[in-house]
Amino acid sequence: VTAELMENLRHIFEDSVSNSFYPVPQEAIGVGSAFEGWSPREWDGVYRVLVPLNPPPGHTFYLELNSAGLLAARTFNVRVEQVCTCQREQLGEKQLCFLHDSQKKLQRKHKCSLLETLCSGSYLDVEKTCHWFSQLIRSSWLHVPQSCSWHLVFQPCSRSCKLQLSKGKESLRVEVLFGVRQGDSDIFVVSQPTEPQKGGCSCFVSSQPAKANFMASTAWLETYAVAEAKFFRHIARQVPCESVHLKCLQLLTCILRGTGFSSSIWKTVLMHVLTTVPLSRWRRREFAWRLWDIMAYLGHCLQVQRLEHFVLGNQRLPAEISLPPAMPEVEPLNLFEYLARDPAAHREAMQLYGQLRFR
Asked: For a Cys-Cys bond, which of 28, 38, 215, 353 suits 246, CB 3.0-4.6 Å?
């Protein structure tokens, strides 16, 4: 239902922004545990989709790494620059050029640059973009088929677009995030807020604790959620039809809830184990052995105080997952770095792991 709704909205968006200089929404991508095929017990029931935004004609996006260090995860600023469109045509007419056409001509055509609408200074503003996108959905709602049977209510949020849909006793919650793709890769910067999301959606942030609860309105968070979702789809095509890899993840995140290891940690461990244990060995009759493999991998990582990020610096990813050119060469992020820095936290984690093995 979520996928069909977003696709219907996208077709209407194409008409709405075709003669404007607002960002161009692309096909929505489902992200998080619900779209990966598993959901932990603490899943909040929200289906999250990422809508990539392309720059409008006459504009281009440049990603600038934000070195402010507000979060353990990397943040970027999306710098908007104007480009010459004097030689381009649109529907047989010469396109307006914000660089070379006179201000009087631009005002006569009632055309505003993206820099004048959704930017703060030279940078794309998350909160302004969120407000614009929400207004776009409001004005498009009556034109989508779902409006005949579903009632739509907006929930307040400054960095994403939250929708509550109801139909009789049925209800559906959708959170729309927007992002800018890094080149042609599967890595995006997104509008996700800094608060950790439930349901394994910490793929939008680092598994390490945040250093601050504040994020500037021009800060966009780097996410690997799309790459991880593609990895699970790749695995689904390779494993036996009765594979239990997602059941392992669901079981561990449910029965070990509240034990100190987050859903994102279990997910990262599983993804690493899937690249080390032959995929032919994930049949139902081997369920218990695979659980022990996952526990053993976690135990080793705790002992050496190192759990590597699955995407950053991983040179063994499937070829279909596209990364920015420099990303496979970077030093993998250690998600257990805080254990290496804090002996007391490491002792506590090892004690916890012993209790988990007993359970």
From this structure: 38
Q: What is d(CA 355, CA 359) in angstroms, rounded to the nearest whole number?
A: 6
What angle, rounded to 10 degrees, do the helices at 287-304 and 263-274 form?
110
As for how many domains the chain has, the answer is: 2
Give the residue ranges of the chain where pLDDT is below 70: 42, 67-73, 85, 87-95, 97-111, 193-214, 258, 328
What is the H or E stretch that residue 53 is in? strand 46-54
Per-residue DSSP letters for 247-309?
HHHHHHHHHTTTSS--HHHHHHHHHHHHTTS-GGG-SGGGHHHHHHHHHHHHHHHHHHT--B-
Beta-carbon-side half-sphere exposure of residue 278 (alpha carbons within 13 Å): 3
Task: Please tell me whether residues 97 and 202 are part of one structural domain.
Answer: yes
Q: What is the pTM of this model?
A: 0.84
Among 238, 261, 241, residue whose Cα is nearest residue 320: 238
Both tokens of residue 136?
């776009």
Report the distance separating Cα 170 and Cα 310, nearest Å.
37
Residue 250: name the closest of 266, 273, 228 by CA: 266
Helices and strands (H and E) in the chain: how many: 11, 14
Contact 171, 33 (CB under 8 A): no
Same domain, yes or no: 6 and 33: yes
Please give the full DSSP string across 142-208, using - where no structure is assigned.
GGSGGGGT-EEEEE--SSSEEEEEEETTEEEEEEEEEEEESTTSS-EEE---SSPPSSSGGGGS-SS
Last residue of one domain, picked from the residues 223, 256, 290 = 223
The boundaries of the domain holding residue 294 are 238-358
